[in-house]
From TrEMBL, chain A:
Compartments it resides in: Membrane
Lineage: Eukaryota, Metazoa, Ecdysozoa, Nematoda, Chromadorea
Name by which UniProt lists this protein: Phospholipid/glycerol acyltransferase domain-containing protein
UniProt record, GO biological process: phospholipid biosynthetic process; triglyceride biosynthetic process
Main location: membrane
From TrEMBL, chain B:
The family this protein is said to belong to: Belongs to the calcineurin regulatory subunit family.
Domain (EF-hand) ranges: 18-46, 50-85, 87-122, 128-163
Native species: Mesorhabditis belari
MF annotations from Gene Ontology: calcium ion binding
Keywords: Calcium, Metal-binding, Repeat
The protein's name: EF-hand domain-containing protein
CDD domains: EFh
SMART domains for the chain: EFh
Keyword Calcium: yes
């Protein structure tokens, strides 16, 4: 009985698969996925409005981010923006973005800045950096258990929905998706290996391009991905460098459904490693080991070589070097900005309402990640092609990288951060701490007179140390906080003759104690 | 802790129950080894603090009993000094204690030197740094005892917007 039922199921499923694959091949859509996503979003919205579960849920939620999210979403994003600006005060001071009057009183500047350093401590309550490496919390529950820690009974309606969703995802979507993924994957591998055998370069490249677009589209369908491309006229042509923000290993897959790229990246193991080998058969890609520090120069060389060759594919680079949870953009490594002077920036923003596409590589393996994507609702991603950017005259690679990053952050609606994404794995190096100190020193030089400590000033200091208590209190009465340092020094030096005279007389005569008061009255 | 043991209750009143609960969760998260207190290493797991030159100073202030670790009570107490509800003199006192390393109520020449050294590193020659320190102490030490008292410190900082600056919302 069961067997017959299964047999009956086979033809429609196969038919469905064929339709999906054919559609994917030509990049056409019947609008079913869009409709499906729309329905899901409506259900979630209904769920969270009909049952304001957030309050209850987050109270018992184990993470702190949950609560922050809730508070933020209720007071919109304005609140977070203000906090951020505040913590950027120090940063802008150190980078010298802020125009401040020079020649300020050293003490005031230093004390003021030490307050800023202390203020940085609000990081212990909520820091911007480590929270970018963890999955973002959602404002409404999307019926995926993983966005929360365990399933909780809220109401029978939601429970039914959740159970229904679970069956749909695991027993209908997963088998279909696995089949589509399998077809796409093997198609890619097989075509790559066979295309690699074709001797004629032109034919090979043409075939590779189309085979890749086709198989990538099929693979992308296996996650029910809905990808919206914007400003496609800015797409990179041959021999350029494209940079994008990095969220997950499927970033590249998603980008590849619209354009063909040469890849550069870290060598991976397992299924990803196999894919890398396959890809290298068909076109020119660059793979390197993260630990191969001495290889880096060679990598740059190869990159240069690659970009200079017009016949080669544009390279896609994720200069953050690690996956960020798609709420911010972290520091861009300068390496990719040293090679050519033209960069094609791409901003990617995932809609996390249906699936969180972020890969937390320190918690999940690639296989686990793929499984999670397969069992999720759908991946929605917006891609913006930004107009190409060129290095300006006198701009170094770091400044150029920062400018490109800012542009991407703006387009994708992400927070622009100055932090190194590698902090996920490593601690801040002492070199960086020293850099911080150096920047701070430079700031002091800009704003105070510490670098002009001259003869006159040391003289004044010496004088003040030689003064007696009464002389000093007299002097201090004349000085006030509004004077700048030069006037202060001048004032002090006016006392020079008096003090020197006293010193001379005190060494000359042995009853210095007695002669002092008399001299002071002369003032 | 000594005579300050009466402080926590009144300091905690800077936070409501909800905020305390949130801070407790945060504390638990920072306490990686689950020892019930935060070590310097645990604080340093926050990238923002790793670069901060005054990190050790702030930990020392938080660490009231001087055992090298910050327990939850010290954590709440420390943060409450940044609270919106905290008054200006608390915040000034905190800033003062950054420089007053031995907690004797005065900033000595040596202490100021050490803290400035933390901030600028080796970018300034020790002799130059010493000059800045000497100058600061000489100009602001109104009573001529060779060190800066809290009152003298307030005179320097007084006009700065300490209150607005040192505010953290949990």
């Amino acid at each position: 009985m069961f067997g017959i039922l299964l047999l009956l199921l086979v033809p429609p499923v196969v038919l469905l698969l064929i339709v999906v694959i054919i559609l994917a091949t030509f990049g056409k859509s019947l609008g079913i996925r869009e409709f499906y996503a729309d329905v899901l979003l409506r259900i979630f919205e209904w769920g969270s409005s009909a049952y304001p579960i957030n309050e209850i849920e987050y109270e018992t939620d184990e993470t702190l981010e949950g609560t922050t999210r809730l508070r933020r979403s209720s007071s919109s994003d304005i609140g977070t923006l203000i906090v951020r600006e505040k913590s950027e005060a120090l940063e802008s001071k150190l980078y010298g973005n802020e125009i401040e009057p020079g020649n300020q009183k050293t003490v005031r500047v230093i004390v003021n800045d030490s307050l800023d350093f202390i203020t940085e401590w609000k990081a212990i309550i909520e820091d911007q950096v480590t929270s970018r490496f963890k999955a973002e919390q959602l404002p409404s529950w999307n019926l995926l258990t993983r966005t929360r820690f365990s399933f909780q009974y809220i109401s029978w309606k939601l429970t039914t929905l959740w159970v229904g969703g679970f069956f749909l995802r695991y027993f209908v979507l997963v088998p279909l998706r696995t089949a589509v993924f399998g077809v796409g994957f093997f198609m890619m591998v097989i075509t790559c290996f066979t295309i690699g055998l074709i001797p004629h370069q032109g034919t090979r490249k043409w075939l590779y391009r189309h085979a890749m677009l086709m198989s990538m589209r099929i693979v992308a369908r296996s996650f029910s991905s809905i990808i919206r491309y914007h400003d496609q006229e800015n797409r990179a042509d041959r021999g350029g460098i494209c940079v994008a923000n990095h969220t997950s290993p499927i970033d590249v897959l998603i980008l590849s459904t619209d354009n063909c790229y040469a890849m550069i990246g870290q060598k991976q193991g397992g299924i990803l490693g196999f894919m890398q080998t396959a890809l290298s058969r068909g076109e020119h890609h660059i793979w390197f080991e993260r630990s191969e520090a001495n290889d880096r120069k060679q990598v740059t060389e190869r990159l240069k070589e690659h970009t200079n060759d017009e016949s080669k594919l544009p390279i896609i680079i994720f200069p953050e070097g690690t996956c960020i949870n798609n709420t911010g953009v972290m520091m861009f490594k300068k390496g990719s900005f040293e090679i050519g002077s033209t960069i094609y920036p791409i901003a990617m923003k995932y809609d996390s309402r249906l699936t969180d596409a972020f890969w937390n590589s320190s918690e999940q393996s690639y296989g686990e990640y793929l499984w999670r994507m397969m069992t999720s609702w759908a991946i929605i991603c917006d891609i913006w092609y930004l107009p190409k950017m060129t290095k300006q005259e006198g701009e170094d690679a770091i400044a150029f990288a920062r400018r490109v990053k800012r542009a991407i952050a703006q387009k994708g609606g992400l927070v622009d951060l100055e932090w190194d994404g590698m902090l996920k794995r490593e601690r801040v190096s002492s070199k960086l701490v020293q850099l911080h100190q150096k920047r701070y020193f430079e700031r002091l030089q800009r704003t105070t007179s510490i670098n002009t400590i001259g003869e006159e000033q040391s003289e004044a200091l010496q004088l003040m140390q030689q003064m007696t208590e009464e002389e000093r209190s007299l002097l201090l009465k004349e000085l006030d906080d509004t004077m700048d340092e030069a006037t202060l020094v001048k004032k002090v030096n006016e006392y020079g003759p008096v003090v020197r005279k006293r010193l001379q007389s005190s060494t000359a005569s042995n009853h210095s104690q007695l002669s002092n008061p008399g001299e002071k009255k002369d003032l | 802790m000594g005579n300050e043991s009466s402080l926590p209750m009144e300091m905690c009143s800077n936070f409501d129950a909800y905020e305390i609960r949130r801070l407790a969760r945060r504390f638990k998260k920072l306490d990686i080894d689950g020892s019930g207190s935060l070590s310097v290493e645990e604080f340093m797991s926050l990238p923002e603090l790793q670069q901060n030159p005054l990190v050790q100073r702030v930990i020392d202030i938080f660490d009231e009993d001087g055992n090298g670790e910050v327990d939850f009570r010290e954590f709440i107490q420390g943060i409450s000094q940044f609270s919106v509800k905290g008054d200006k003199s608390t915040k000034l006192k905190f800033a003062f204690r950054i420089y007053d390393m031995d907690r004797d109520g005065f900033i000595s020449n040596g202490e100021l030197f050490q803290v400035l050294k933390m901030m600028v590193g080796n970018n300034l020659k020790d002799t130059q740094l010493q000059q800045i320190v000497d100058k600061t102490i000489l100009f602001h030490d109104k009573d001529g005892d060779g060190k800066i008292s809290f009152q003298e410190f307030c005179d320097v900082v007084g006009s700065l917007d300490v209150h607005e600056k040192m505010v953290v919302k949990p």
